[in-house]
Amino acid sequence: MNKFWIVMSHTYMTRFKTKSFLISTIITLLFVVGLANYQTIFDAFSDEGKSEIAVLDVTGEFFKPLEKTVENANEDVDLVAYDKSEETGKGAVEDEKIDALITIGMNENQLPEATYYANNIADSTEQTVIQQQLQQLKVAKATSQAGVDQETIKEIYSPVNFDAVALDKSAKSSEELSQARGIVYVMLFVLYLSVITYGNMIATDVATEKSSRVMELLVSSVSPVTQMFAKIIGIALLGLTQVGLLLGLGYALIVSKQDELTGGVFTEFGIQGASLLLFIYAIVFFVLGYLLYATLAAMLGSLVSRTEDVQQMIMPMIFLVMIAFFIAMYGLSAPDSSFVVISSYIPFFTPMLMFLRVGMLDIPFWEVALSLAILIGTIILLAVIGARVYKGGVLMYGKSSSLKDFKKAIALSKKE
Q1: Where do the domains of the chain lie, and which CATH numbers do they carry?
Q2: Average pLDDT for residues 293-314, to the nearest whole number?
Q3: What is the DSSP string of 180-203?
Q4: pLDDT tens digits along 162-177
């Protein structure tokens, strides 16, 4: 057991001190901070003050209502009446005395039309706001000409009342589905990225030690099985360190911005009001999913002697994760489809798909228990096979990255 802790701590500290880990962690933390304060950052880099746009309304009818609606839609756009000629206005724009000029006139149907003049029209934000509000004025004008009153117009444009009611008493409500969908979505991405990142890290770590011949010294003092699981746990702790820092920062940001987050993105992702059981399932499926793929990664990493061959060797594992992820993305809109249900019992897909079903549906506990039993059984089986492959694989050297080396690795393990 002492040797296990030595290898585990060595794996953890070696990776923890690498520049790549420190830089990636710092960048991720900065990204989270930036995401939480994106509006402040955006305002800091945006142009100061309002955009002053002159409006030459030759009809004398649309400036006042347009000014009011645009101000309500975007407070950073300031419309001012312009009483000089169009050419003079264009000159003022070119001389940067005003930001833009809009001319409003009537077409042959006595409906408004406009032209927008600016030195640069690449930024369409202001144009879009003004165009949308002018469109509303055009609709009001056209319907007025047709004898349609404003109340009828409001009724036409008001959204249709559409309620979704589940008749099955065990089915989840729309609110519960929205909460679950956000958590499931986050869990799928976290598991997907974790498996690819830390699985690759485990395989690379094994291959690096083999390429430097350190493995020969380790094998003589520590059993290969102890090495494999020590590395898996060591990398897992490294991942927990990184995730823990992110969660700690996230919690601090949530506490400091509670008022801003309530009713916004925070609520959109379903964190508020979600059941404790759903979080427990998320942790269980995440841990089991990590153990499954980490064991597979260590086994595959032991079959290569050069770090250059790692990516090729673990490609089947990455494909499995990608397939599970894409099925889960489909399952977000159809969690009860036969394809998703059957796939959720396939061990390599279970961590994502069964959690998806648990979050989106109210399924019997025996289904969850059965999937967990299959998943745990697969992890144990993979650990037994993986230990034998790892035991023989760490003794194999030379240019090799073929899955055919499984038999050779198992044969070597029997001789030991």
Answers
A1: 49-157 (3.40.190.10), 173-415 (no CATH)
A2: 80
A3: HHHHHHHHHHHHHHHHHHHHHHHH
A4: 777 766 665 666 666 7
